[in-house]
Amino acid sequence: MSTQSLNPTFATGGPGDRVRGDTGLLRLALRLDAIATGAVGLAALAGCAAVDGALGLPTAFLAGLGAFLVLYAVGVWRIGGSDTPRRTAVRAVIGLNLVWFADSVAMAIAGLLDPTDLGTTLIVLQAVAVLGFADVQILGLRKARTSLR
């Protein structure tokens, strides 16, 4: 017995879970988020040993962060690639972006991992960018919904 037959709404998100209407802005915001996230992830992976001292962040932290971001970017890219993305997936991306923003700001304020001034500045800048992606993704969801009226 497949997972889908046990709980089709959970397994597939259900037919009503698709974002309908004008999804252009939403899909663009998701794709740009994926590109930026992937680029930051690749940069963290490639340069973790070279920039750890300048940023004050441990090499292992940067490498793990980079690997996570690359994998996350692939997922966000896939979600943004659909003409009718799953609403639950889009909401998950938005929610994770908001959590990432809050955690980044908290990390910068608390000085967790003892970043340098440059490291703190980069943490705050990427947090603001992530908040911007979440905001545009929310606008994209709203635009899709209102275009159906």
Helix-strand layout with pairing:
Layout (H helix, E strand, L loop, with lengths): L2 H4 L1 H5 L11 H32 L3 H22 L6 H24 L6 H30 L3
Helix pairs in contact: 3-4, 3-6, 5-6
What's the total number of strands?
Answer: 0
Radius of gyration: 18 Å
Structural class designation? mainly alpha
Low-pLDDT windows of residues: 1-11
User: Largest sheet, if any?
Assistant: none
Helix content: over 70%
β content, as a range?
A: under 5%
SSE string: HHHHHH
Q: Globular, elongated, flat, extended or rod-shaped: what is the shape?
A: elongated
Number of helices: 6
Total of domains: 1
* Mean pLDDT reading: 91
End-to-end C-alpha gap: 40 Å
Keywords: Membrane, Transmembrane, Transmembrane helix
Transmembrane segments: 34-55, 61-80, 92-113, 119-141
Organism: Embleya hyalina
Protein name: Integral membrane protein
Q: Which features characterize this protein?
A:
79% helix, mainly alpha, Integral membrane protein, elongated, 6 helices, transmembrane, membrane
Could you please describe the fold and organization of this structure?
- Keywords: Membrane, Transmembrane, Transmembrane helix.
- This is Integral membrane protein.
- The chain crosses the membrane at residues 34-55, 61-80, 92-113, 119-141.
- There is one protein chain.
- Mean pLDDT is 91; it is low at 1-11.
- The longest helix has 32 residues, at 24-55.
- The N and C termini lie far apart (40 Å).
- The chain has one domain.
- By secondary structure, it is mostly helical.
- It has helices at residues 3-6, 8-12, 24-55, 59-80, 87-110, 117-146.
